[in-house]
Structure formats: structure tokens, C-alpha cells
Design a protein that fits this description.
heterodimer; A: 373 residues; alpha+beta; Rossmann fold; OB fold (Dihydrolipoamide Acetyltransferase, E2P); 8 helices; 23% helix; elongated; B: mainly alpha; MetI-like fold; 13 helices; globular
Chain lengths: 373, 296
Amino acid sequence: MSSSADTARASGARLELRNLSKAFAGVRAVDRLSLDVPAGAFVSLLGPSGSGKTTTLNLIAGFLAADTGDILLDGRSVADVPPHKRNIGMVFQSYSLFPHMTVADNVGFPLRMRTRLSREAAGKRIAGMLELVQLSHLAARYPRQLSGGQQQRVAMARALVSYPRLLLMDEPLGALDKKLREQMQIEIKRIHRSVGTTVVYVTHDQAEALTMSDIVVVMHQSRIAQVGSPRALYESPANLFVADFLGDSNLLPGRIVETAGAQAIVELGNGQVVRVARGEVTLMAGQKTVVLVRPEDMRVGEPADGQDAVSGRIAEVSYHGDSYRLEVAVGADRLKVRVPRFSGTDLAPGQDVQVVWRPDAARLVPVDAAKEG
Amino acid sequence: MSVYAMQATTTARPAGLLARAGAVPALLLAPCLIWIFAFFLLPLGLMCWRSLASEGFSLAPYAVLFTSPLYVKVLLTTVKMASIATVCALLLAYPIAYTLTVTGGKVRGAILLFILIPYWVDIIVRSFSWLIMLGDNGLINKAFIGLGLVSEPLALLYNAFSVLVAMTQILLPITIVTLFGAMLRIDRTLMAAATIHGAGEWQAFRHVFFPLSLPGVYGAGLLAFILALGFYVTPALLGSPKETMIAQTIMVDASQLLDWPQASAAAAVLLLITTTIAAIYNRYFSLDRLWGGSEP
């Protein structure tokens, strides 16, 4: 607890996780996890259920004690600091608003517990927070009288009112419908910008993680699969799991024939040779690899200069409003291709087509890099 | 014992069951409803009728109840003893029920077993066992004298103390279980939310858990109080005439004085008091919640 919570405003803490492990009944839920989060960053922990992201969040909150490793806030270990003294705010999946308190009392709770603010000062702070989340008119209501989205905002206000160094969010939008979820994503980003605290955001929704975060931590089987900016993860996945988990992907196994400057020549399983941007991966001829091409980077038609193409037959066409999605059979494999809605009207299953892409849209994914991290 | 059983049945039946009934539910409920009518409502009606119409229609037995110093005193004693026993049971039950919510698995099972074993033992046996504990040559007095704490045996038996101790003990299991059920429905992440937002363990309990457990406390208290009003064996075995409760008076009226109208009137008044309390509770806290129904 800082002597004055006011000084903490607009200064999120730097969060470091050092070799953190936690097991439940012998099963590792978090396995030697290390992570640096710069002050004020918005970081998402993204992964399928059971990947350890919620356990990580609970370790940071202090609800669980780590078996090994350490957690540092601004360089200082909080291992021996109980949760209520860590000065962390948290938004829970089910919001967990106190049902017997009004909205204003819910928001004021951390102030009553953590600070010695006078009633006027606390009232002012609560009013300011409610204004930030645009709920000033509902201060006297009880949580059960609010919609899901409104409860979500109250939970945000409560988590932020004492100007915490760190804000933890555990799948906060999971219970909302799609429209509201997208609206709240923008809202949360706006609030994050205006308060400047460090945010650790747990989600299994990749769109949410990609649109909101400065840094995304993809978790898989209790470990970090990759850390990076949303763009880096999507465009240069470090391993097959990340390539497959994020977005739609075509993963074509092959073998490196030769490396030539910024490009590599890869022979695919069906004998076809394609060019691939090398990225930062060290390569050797003969090495096994996987080529990643995103469906939206492919099109059907004649290859233009310098483009790669494979021939196949359309197996399925489905209409998705903004686009058509095709499944094109190439030998035993199926390629997913997304074409804009205006150019997909003539396509039908059974047609022979060429699937075309630019070499720089193709990426090499290291095959056995999954054991890194 | 029949008064005791009847009271439990009336309060355990949430209102509105009949109102919603369609054909199939009505059919399914029929055996139960017939049973209740034939063996509960009908005798109850007859009892009330008897209290009013023994020798032509007359409110005389009721007049006696509220004017005779004996009945007024007994009614007051009954309410006083039941209130004290209820409060004691709640005070003892709350920490045990809370402990149950924070333990799990085998420990919880073991505690529940120790709560339920006495519950399965008959009230007469439980009341008798207090005779052994509290008598002049009982366990407690022997221990105290043996330790040299007192020279003469303490008067632990045949007074308000012994009646209240036994009543409290008999009420304890049902109070604990009712409280425990209510506490289990409190969302534990609310405690986590309180903790992460600055509340220490005690503060989280005081500001979040305790207020949310109050409906359960009122519910368990109500149940205990209604049961306590109808106690017969315990005050009869462990009390003096000063601790005479209404059920004992009804028994004397019916079986010794053969004054059935008077006994019926006293029973009707007891029933009226308990149903009124249950109705008031239901109005403000909704009985449904106690039996696992949805929030209002």
C-alpha cells in the first residue's frame, strides 16, 4: 500500500515474471514462465482453455502462491505481499460486483479499504470514475438492476478507482454478445489510454487479443508459445502452434531446397516448388519446414509475374457476407482461400483453378521451435 | 411430538405450488395432497373447530388463554426460551457453518458427520444425556469438584440453564445445515474481488461475506425459533415448573385435565404464531431461497 494512492496515477508498474511454475496435484499448470511487461503496456495472455493463462493471472494477483519463481512489480518482488496489499485492480469474468452494494459503493470499495480519503474526496473520485465509464446516472442502482455491459463498466471503475499499478482482466468480455464485446474492446482501450496503468488481459478470443494489445503472449500447454506484437505473431509465427492458433492458415509441409538471398526455395509435399520469404529463421538446405500462407493472401486466377501458384479443384464454396471462403483440393491437401465477395460469384465446386500468392506472403514456420520458450 | 412435526411441515411448503399446477403436476401431486389433506389439514381443522365449538360456539378457551395469568406466563416463557435458544444456536452454528464452507473434501465430510450423528439421535435420548452430564453427580459437577473448583455441586439441572443448553444443542444441527446451505450459495469470487481490491481477510468477511450471509442467518434463525416454540420433551425432562413451555401445557390440558377445547385453542394459537412469523419472513426474505429456490 503506497502512502498516497494519488501519486500512483498514470504510472503503471513494470511487471516481470521470473521462471514461474505452479502445479496442481502434480500437474504443471504454469511451467517455468518468464515474461517482461513494460510499464503501461497492454498485454494479453492468449491461449486455449487449460493453457495456464488464468493460473498465471491468479499467481500475479496473489490468489495462488507459485511453487517456484518470482513476480516483480517495478523491480520489487511481491512474493511475500498478500493480494490485498499488492495495489492491483482486477476485473473478473463474472464481474463479481458486490450484490448488496450500490454501484457507487462498489466503486468506492477499494478506496474505503486502501485509502484514508475523506468522504468528499472519495465521492469525487468515485464520480470521476463513473464518468470515465459513462455510468454517472446509475450510481444509486444495485448491480442486479444493470445490464451485462453496464456491470462490466462498473467492474472496470472499481478496479481502477484506487489508481492501481496493475490491472488484471480475466476474460472480462466473455459473457457479452458480439456487438457489445466489440464496443467494450474500444471502450477498454480508451480507458487504458486515459489511466495509463499496466494491463494484463486474459482471453481465449484471438481477435480480442490482436486488436487490443501492445503485446500478445500466446500460451500453450502451460508455457509461452510466443511473445510479440500482434502483427509479429500473425505474420511471423515462431512455431506451428502459433501459426495454426492465430487466424486461418494453410500450413504446407515441405523441404528446403536452397536459400537465395531474402528468399528460400521450398519443395512442397506434392513435389511443387515455391518461393518463401526467409524471415529471421536460420535455414539449411534439406531441412524440413512448413510453409504458412494465410487464406486472405491467396486468390484464384492466372499467376502474375513473380507469383507462385498451385493447381487444384474447388471442393467447397461458402458465403460469409464480406467474402467467399473456398476449399481447394490440391492432391490430398486442402487449401483454404478467401476471395472478396465481388470476385467470388462465378466460383463453384468442381471447377479447376489455380491458387496464386505472392512469395512475400508466404512464411516459413520452424518445425521444432515449439519446444522453445 | 405431533405439534413439532406439524409445524415443520407447514413452513416447509412454499406458497404458490398449487397455483402453478397443470394437469400432470396435479396428478403427480395428488397422492401427497390427499395425504396432507386427510392427515394434516383435516385434523387441524377439527382441532380448530373443537376449540371454538365444544358446547355451542364459544371463544371462551381463547379468552382463558389471554387472560389467565398461567397461560400468559407460559406463552411468554415459551417465546423467551425459544428466542434465547435460537440466538445461542445461531452464535454457535455460524462459525461452524463458515468453517464448512472453507474446508473441502474429507474434512468437510467428517465435520458434517459429527453434526448429523446427534441429529439422527432421538430428542428424548439427547435430552436424557444432558441429565447425565448436568446432574449433581453428573460428569461436569464431578469434574469441577475433582479439580477443586467448587466444593458443593453446582445447580446445573432443572432450571432455565439446563433447558437452554439442551434446546440449543438440539437446534444446532438444523441451524448449521441451513446456514451452510445459504453460505454455499455466496459466490466465493466476491471474496477474491474484495481481497484484490484492498480488503484483508477480516474486512472481506465483514464487508462482503457477512452481509451476504444475513438472509441465511434470518432463515436459519426462523427455522430454529419455530422448532423451539414447540419443544416439549426437553423442558419436561430438564426444566422446573418455572420453565414450563406451551407444548407441555397443551399436553396437560389434553391428557390430564381432558380439557380438549382448551388444548386445541392453545395449539391453534401456537400454530398461528409460527405461521405468522413464517409469513413475515417470507414477505421480506422469501422462503424459497432457503429451500434452494431462485433469488427474488
